[in-house]
Design a protein that fits this description.
The chain is an alpha+beta fold. The chain has seven domains: 135 residues, Beta-Lactamase, CATH 3.30.450; 165 residues, 2-Layer Sandwich (Beta-Lactamase); 108 residues, Beta-Lactamase, CATH 3.30.450; 74 residues, Beta-Lactamase, CATH 3.30.450.20; 124 residues, 2-Layer Sandwich (Beta-Lactamase); 164 residues, Alpha-Beta Plaits; 232 residues, TIM Barrel, CATH 3.20.20.450. 40% of the residues lie in helices and 28% in strands. The longest helix has 29 residues.
Length: 1137
């Protein structure tokens, strides 16, 4: 038989209805039905198949059917099918599993409303413990849910707000949620205790102006005195003197007091209605709830106001402890969670309710955490409380440390729920960590700080620690100090300082930078800044004393004051204007440069200056300049010049000279130096000096004129010419025009000076300067005196091809005109050299050199002028460049020898060769000796060159001798070589190296070489003679000859120069000279060699004159060594052996 079977319950009910007047005291089932009907919550029971077997009146009323209509039906008979499926499936699962089933759902009631219901169902057992059905209770939680919804809606509206904004949001949402016509929150006036001032008023859908009014005779007075008060109707009749009720037209009123944490009334929260109230309890509850919120906010505001003065620069951070709570089934299914918990993960109820707790976002971020929770739930389900710390990740992805616990809820000794609770201890953990780190940092700072630090007990009975900085400063060791007191070691120089220190510490708790004098171990005194505060180390309260040694700083301050005094004296007595100018407002450096210029010009103002600065502008006192814009007296162009230089120089400029005007309008020149001060990316001021450089400017102008002009003629000078010519060249390089330079040298000017005196010469130069200047006036040509009797004319641009030559001819004509000197008519002439750009060079120095070369060539020209010709310039840059390569050519073996044969005129036999050097240039080809030998003789290169020629000549002689070709080898010796101390040793070494028969080697020397230093020449030649080397005078007759010297020297041969030999057949004079030379030589016992034989007639004539040997093109041109054998085989002149 079923316990509380449905049919018995139904029969009992029917009996009760039929016997309402009878007593039911003896029927238990009837009494049970009456008990069930007295329960306001719907109750029902079903059998194993889900058929209703009983219910109470509340259930019938809820579903809108009679008991007769319900009994015998399944849930499909009383609910829509989609809901019936859910309910029936839940019933079957419960009867299969047994136990209790609790869940929350929405149900459509018979009155048409949707109700929030919690079903609580449990199975019923038969006497043999078989499941026979279930009994269920429906708990209607709609009012509570509605209340929660109102609270949540209001909370969402006000939670982002705070302070006055919160009050506006609160009264707005409160009025809208409760459908009130108005709502207000007011607080007690601090000035009048019986007066209330509104903080926010919401009426008729808008914020109204706040007002203050007396509490007396108002319902707010009752609220402030008695607590929550309600007047659902006719409130104005109860309080006829309340003007606020009258203005709002209020009929109903509900008000709650605003209390602080100590129960003190802070104000009132009230709602007003123009209609009588119906749901008074709900309005009171919501009003009470938000009064609590407003109270908390008011208390917070009050606390902020109290702390504002002392904590003005600190930002208060208030963190409410995060409390999380919920409800789990013993299996770990989440049934409920509070808003704090949901807010933490940003989830909605429907997203997490009904899930296993360890699979929710609180836990599923870590498998290890989830497993730990699952095991904790299993343990808690057995009736044990479990607690542990867990790491959660909140909705922002931040990790929070939670002190988590699970507590079982028992019913009849069985765990029916688990209550999870969590307390956010993240801040606590962080604080603990921060405390440890803080102590570690303190220890680190304490140990490493250069300041002296002591840790003492608060009553200073004992020093418990000192740092190394203390030991370094005082000279004490750690062991000498710790355990004693500052009195023991005599640290205080003046005990009154110690008394003042402890007196101030007791009054304020903190000491900052108290100046005191301390005694060191060695007896010396040091001044220190003493600071102190309480610290907690290892839970022991201690006093930290920090002493910063400022002895040196105090000395520096004294020096600074003295320096400031000196500075003020310097500024006041300086002969330069010194000033400070502020930029008001400061200029951002991020402005473009152009805007910076305008900004500075418009906003710089003198804020400090000395009297010298004021006098520059015509003021007597420095005060007269202060406050003025220092740019007022600048020339507009000058001010821009200064500011541009200042900005482009990185807000610094030194000695920039500009023109300005004083108060009387006089022009003055000032040298300005400025240094800007930049802070936080802005220019805030400028420091500067100014001095009057007008006189120096005039002196410099005079000096510049003197530096650029000739003092005698007043004409521009060489320096001016160089500068102006360079500028003209720069322009010509751009416009590709031509430029000319004429160099004038006066002929016979020295005769004027020698005959009439230098004064007359000076007069002539002045007259010539005026004469030429007058002629060139109106032209762009510039007349310059270079010095002495040299002038120049610069033609900066010309396009007529022969214009420089025409101008030169005109200038010479003017120069030749007579000059009046001391009553005499004096005539002179001149020579003019001309160089042009770009033909002759692209620099002033090059053009001057070319004009100078042309000028000296002009002295032999009948016209008196000459245009530069590089072919007639022996010292062209090209030739000098070639000479610069000669040393490398000698080292690299670029010198080669050509050999010109010599024959015996009597036997026509080949007697020898003259070795002639050539330069085989890699780019220019074969270069003749006359193009490089003269340059080699000017320097030291003639020595290695001669050595190279001797080496090659003797090597070739040895090669020919080995072939049986025996001839003499003649080598030219330069005059400078006779001065070479190593020449004789070099010759001896080479003769031995190539085994040269001495009689087969001949040296040819010019007359110049012999007569430059005849004694030294005689010594060297005697050495060669002793070696068996033949000696010959080359180019005889072209230089200075001395018969006595010829007699003294060990010579064997004279060579007649080609200038006499070549024309001798057609020129009787040359014939006679050659004949005389031959006779002279023979008389001196010398052989004669004629060079320059170019035809047979000359050869025959020389033979008739008795000349011994000859060489020349007729016999053979100089031959390379490889061509000698072929030449030898085909000519009639044969070697002797």
């Amino acid at each position: 038989m079923l316990k509380n079977r449905g049919d018995d319950l139904n029969n009992t009910t029917e009996t009760n209805r039929g016997e309402q007047g009878q007593s039911a005291g003896g029927d238990p089932e009837l009494r049970l039905q009456k008990v069930l009907d007295s329960i306001p919550a719907p109750v029902f029971c079903k059998d194993r198949q889900g058929v209703y077997r009983g219910c109470n009146d509340a259930f019938c009323q809820f579903v809108g059917a009679s008991r007769e209509q319900i009994i015998g039906q399944t849930v499909y008979g009383v609910a829509p099918r989609e809901l019936a499926d859910v309910y029936h499936r839940a019933d079957m699962e419960l009867m299969e599993s047994g136990g209790v089933q609790i869940y929350e759902t929405k149900v459509h009631a018979a009155d048409g409303s949707d109700r929030d219901v919690i079903f609580h169902k449990s199975v019923m057992f038969s006497e043999d413990e078989e499941v026979e059905g279930l009994v269920g209770v429906m708990l209607d939680i709609t009012p509570r849910k509605r209340l929660e919804e109102h609270v949540l809606a209001l909370a969402r509206g006000v939670s982002p707000a705070a302070g006055e904004t919160l009050f506006v949001a609160l009264v707005k949402h409160l009025a809208e949620a409760l459908d009130a016509d108005a709502a207000m929150v007011g607080t007690n006036s601090p000035d009048a205790p019986d007066t209330i001032c509104t903080r926010a008023v919401w009426a008729d859908g808008a914020v109204n102006e706040n007002v203050c009014y007396e509490l007396t005779g108002t319902p707010n007075e009752r609220v402030a005195r008695d607590g929550l008060c309600s007047y659902p109707d006719k409130v104005q009749q109860s309080f006829p003197d309340d003007r606020l009720l009258a203005e709002m037209g209020a009929t109903a009123y509900v008000g709650a007091p605003l209390l602080d944490s100590r129960g003190k009334v802070l104000g009132v929260l009230a709602v007003f209605y123009r209609q009588p109230l119906q749901e008074l309890r709900q309005i009171e509850n919501l009003t009470r709830i938000f009064a609590s919120r407003a109270s908390a906010e008011l208390e917070l505001i009050k606390r902020d106001e109290e702390l504002l003065d002392s904590e003005r620069r600190l930002r208060a951070i208030f963190e409410n402890t995060m409390e999380l709570s919920g409800l789990l089934s013993p299996e770990g299914v989440l049934l409920r969670a509070n808003g704090t918990a949901l807010e933490m993960i940003g989830a909605r109820e429907e997203e997490v309710f009904g899930k296993l707790f360890w699979e929710t976002p609180w836990w599923n971020h870590s498998e290890q955490q989830a497993e730990r929770l699952r095991m904790a739930i299993e343990e808690a389900a057995t009736g044990k409380s479990v607690a542990f710390e867990a790491a959660h990740v909140d909705r922002n992805g931040e990790e929070r440390i939670i002190d988590f616990s699970l507590k079982p809820v028992f019913e009849q000794g069985k765990t029916i729920y688990l209550v999870p609770e969590g307390h956010d201890i993240t801040e606590l953990k962080q604080t603990e960590l921060a405390l440890r780190e803080s102590e570690e940092r303190f220890r680190s700072i304490f140990d490493t700080s250069p300041d002296a630090m002591l840790l003492v007990q608060p009553d200073e009975k004992q020093i418990v620690g000192v740092n190394q900085g203390f030991c370094d400063l005082t000279g004490y060791t750690h062991d000498q100090v710790v355990g004693g007191s500052s009195l023991d070691i005599g640290l205080w120089h003046d005990l009154s300082d110690r008394e003042l220190f402890y007196r101030e510490l007791e009054r304020g708790g903190v000491i900052n930078n108290m100046e005191a004098t301390f005694c060191m171990q060695d007896g010396s005194l040091r001044i220190g800044l003493l600071s102190s505060r309480s610290v907690q180390l290892s839970e022991e309260p201690l006093l930290l004393l920090v002493v910063r040694d400022i002895t040196d700083l105090k000395a520096a301050e004294m020096a600074l004051r003295q320096s400031e005094d000196r500075y003020q004296a310097f500024v006041a007595n300086s002969t330069e204007g010194i000033f400070r100018a502020d930029i008001e407002p400061p200029m951002p450096l991020a402005l473009p440069v152009g805007e910076q210029l305008e900004y500075i010009i418009e906003n710089v103002k003198v804020s400090e200056c000395n009297e010298e600065f004021a006098r520059l502008y015509g003021f007597d006192l420095a005060e007269q300049m202060v406050g003025r814009y220092s740019m007022e007296y600048y020339d507009p162009d000058s001010i821009r010049e200064v500011v541009i230089a200042f900005v482009e120089g990185g807000y610094r400029v030194s000695d920039i000279e500009t023109r300005q005007y004083d108060r009387e309008g006089r022009e003055i020149w000032l040298a300005t130096s400025l240094v800007g001060t930049v802070e936080d990316g802005r220019l805030i001021r400028m420091w500067g000096t100014r001095r009057d450089v007008s006189e120096r400017k005039r002196q410099l102008e005079t000096l510049e004129y003197m530096a650029n002009h000739d003092s005698l003629t007043g004409l521009p000078n060489r320096y001016w010419l160089k500068r102006v010519a360079e500028e003209a060249l720069d322009r010509r390089l751009v416009d590709t025009g031509r430029m000319a330079l004429l160099l004038i040298d006066l002929d016979r000017f020295k005769d004027v000076n020698d005959s009439l005196g230098h004064h007359a010469g000076d007069v002539l130069l002045k007259q010539l300067g005026l004469r030429l200047s007058s002629y060139l006036k109106g032209e762009s040509y510039q007349l310059v005196r270079l010095g002495g009797d040299e002038f120049a004319v610069l033609v900066p641009l010309f396009d007529v091809p022969r214009r420089p030559q025409q101008l030169a001819a005109e200038l010479l004509r003017l120069i030749k005109q007579p000059f009046e000197l001391e009553g005499l008519h004096v005539e002179i002439s001149g020579s003019i050299g001309i160089s042009c750009f770009p033909e002759h060079g692209n620099s002033v120095s090059t053009l001057l050199r070319c004009a100078d070369v042309a000028m000296y060539q002009a002295k032999s020209d009948v016209r008196g002028y000459r245009l530069y010709d590089a072919d007639n310039d022996p010292n062209t840059p090209e030739r000098l460049a070639l000479f610069s390569e000669l040393g490398g050519a000698i080292r690299d073996g670029q010198l080669v020898l050509y050999f010109q044969p010599k024959i015996d005129l009597q036997t026509e036999a080949l007697v020898g060769f003259e070795a002639l050097v050539r330069w085989q240039h890699p780019l220019r080809g074969l270069i003749p000796p006359n193009e490089f030998i003269p340059y080699a003789e000017l320097g030291a290169l003639i020595v290695p060159l001669t050595h190279e020629v001797l080496e090659q000549a003797l090597r070739r002689w040895r090669s020919w001798a080995d072939e049986g070709f025996h001839v003499t080898m003649a080598v030219n010796i330069s005059p400078r070589m006779l001065m070479d101390e190593e020449l004789v040793q070099t010759v001896e070494r080479l003769v031995q190296k190539y085994r040269v028969t001495p009689g087969n080697l001949e040296f040819e020397l010019t007359e110049t070489a012999l007569f430059h230093d005849p004694d030294h020449a005689e010594t060297v030649l005697n050495r060669f003679h002793s070696m068996g080397i033949s000696l010959s005078i080359d180019d005889f007759g072209t230089g200075y000859s001395s018969l006595s010297l010829l007699k003294r020297l060990p010579l064997q041969t004279l060579k007649v120069d080609r200038s006499f030999v070549s024309p001798m057949v057609s020129n009787e004079v040359d014939m006679n000279l050659v004949s005389s030379t031959v006779n002279l030589a023979h008389n001196l016992g010398l052989r004669v060699v004629a060079e320059g034989v170019e035809n047979a007639e000359t050869l025959d004539a020389l033979a008739e004159l008795g000349c011994d040997e000859a060489q020349g093109f007729y016999i053979a041109r100089p031959l390379p060594a490889e061509d000698v054998p072929e030449w030898r085989d085909r000519v009639r002149w044969k070697a002797k052996g």
